[in-house]
Amino acid sequence: MENYKQFLVTLSSAGVVGVIAIIFVLRWVLYYQRGLAWDGGLAEFNWHPVLNVCGFIILQGLAIIVYRLPWSWKYSKLTMKFIHASLNLVAFIFAVVATVAVFDYHNAAKIPNMYSLHSWVGLAAVILYCLQLVLGVSLYLLPFAPMSWRAALMPVHVYSGLFIFTSVIAVALMGITEKLIFALTNPKYKDSPPEAIFVNVLGLLLVLYGGLILWIATRQSWKRPSDQTLHTLHSNGGGEDDTKVGPALSQLSDGAEGDSFGEVRRRNNKFDDQVN
Amino acid sequence: MENYKQFLVTLSSAGVVGVIAIIFVLRWVLYYQRGLAWDGGLAEFNWHPVLNVCGFIILQGLAIIVYRLPWSWKYSKLTMKFIHASLNLVAFIFAVVATVAVFDYHNAAKIPNMYSLHSWVGLAAVILYCLQLVLGVSLYLLPFAPMSWRAALMPVHVYSGLFIFTSVIAVALMGITEKLIFALTNPKYKDSPPEAIFVNVLGLLLVLYGGLILWIATRQSWKRPSDQTLHTLHSNGGGEDDTKVGPALSQLSDGAEGDSFGEVRRRNNKFDDQVN
């Protein structure tokens, strides 16, 4: 991998910033706000920022860059697709529960739903994320989509993923803005009490995390090499897991399946390597 | 150009969405709010959204994609760099005046400055944009930077540009959220009066504009070809402006300058073509 040291520094930074952001959102709701519960009150609302930060942002970020981790290159593309899809599925479930929490709270407190720009862009992001997940699995994980479709739609899949991820961070920034204006009354947001400063820093951390993930995801030189390249590399003694990796790459994704099913996947996987 | 029709549709959509966004922000301040003036009051504040939408978002978006317009390919790379830098400079001036307007208004109304996440990320974006402009001109417009620096920093220049542009849109969404909560009192934002719906739509238009600009800016196949490729194309009768284009590409950027100055630029321009 080119610039391996730079990759490690960027990845570690994203990891550290992500973990600090999770600590910040937890401290926000547990220390400054009324903790977590599922009671229709403010403690139920608090699941909204917690689940969205942990799942819809940090976990989605990890799902985006999972192909770029060099330690994952010994696993077949199919295995990595499963991991990519599973992480996104978990992030989606977090986002859905987070959305249910805020609707529940609004309904109990008789606050209208879906009036703010935050809610409009937020719900759009959840719906688009669901669509992205369904289309992604149908096109790239299941073996039925013709190769021409896979190739033609790959740039759209990649771009949509990054666009949704970025939008979710923008939605979180709007959410923080709303919540601090509504929750801080004495002193107010404009008086900059410690909670205001603390949660503003959480917002900055989310922007920074987004910036690091997008940097990693858009470096061409950090892409996962094609399975064929990896196979050649390992067959020539380039890897430590020579005996394990060869079969993993060349067979596990194809050979374990029935003949025609395996053949379609074999053809498609070969194509994926070219377009990804 | 590959997918020329798709390019035209995307570009036209960005143009239409951008113009509608400008109409929306003008209608917001002129019809729903107290118009425009420079009096320390709300009418002065209104320059803040108007200048930021028109300059810091729409104009910056145009500056980002200006190299991709095929009609610009008959002009030398140097000419296009001047246009790219000039558009960004105008957008920066808009952003600075927009920032002065809101500080002026806050000071007159005794509202604290710089307490919100909107103001933190917004000021950071203005400062980073200034830095980007100064570094961009120093590295790529002036002829002094060594070629190795130009090449090494080009990915950073491109990424920072897109990152700042995206951040500014996120800042605008936070600004809209804040302003609608503060400005709408009877009926409130949560009661969804016409102004709330109208300005929420403005927010969606900005997200859409950002999405279209980022799509155009990240398509590799829509990049400006190197000057050498263009020159060959036109010399072989590939263009309608054969006599005009050849000299424009090969001489205007280099030949008009003094010998040593021209030589450095010639070398650098050649390198730019390879890395851009």
UniProtKB/TrEMBL annotation, chains A, B:
Coiled coil: none annotated. Residues 262-276 have a biased composition (Basic and acidic residues). Residues 13-218 form the Cytochrome b561 domain. The keyword Calcium does not apply. The keyword Cell cycle does not apply. GO terms for molecular function: metal ion binding; transmembrane ascorbate ferrireductase activity. The chain crosses the membrane at residues 7-30, 50-70, 82-103, 123-144, 156-176, 196-217. Its EC number is 7.2.1.3. It is found in: Apical cell membrane. It is a multi-pass membrane protein. Its cofactor is heme b. It catalyses: Fe(3+)(out) + L-ascorbate(in) = monodehydro-L-ascorbate radical(in) + Fe(2+)(out) + H(+); monodehydro-L-ascorbate radical(out) + L-ascorbate(in) = monodehydro-L-ascorbate radical(in) + L-ascorbate(out); Cu(2+)(out) + L-ascorbate(in) = Cu(+)(out) + monodehydro-L-ascorbate radical(in) + H(+). Homodimer. This is Plasma membrane ascorbate-dependent reductase CYBRD1. It comes from Hippocampus comes (Tiger tail seahorse).
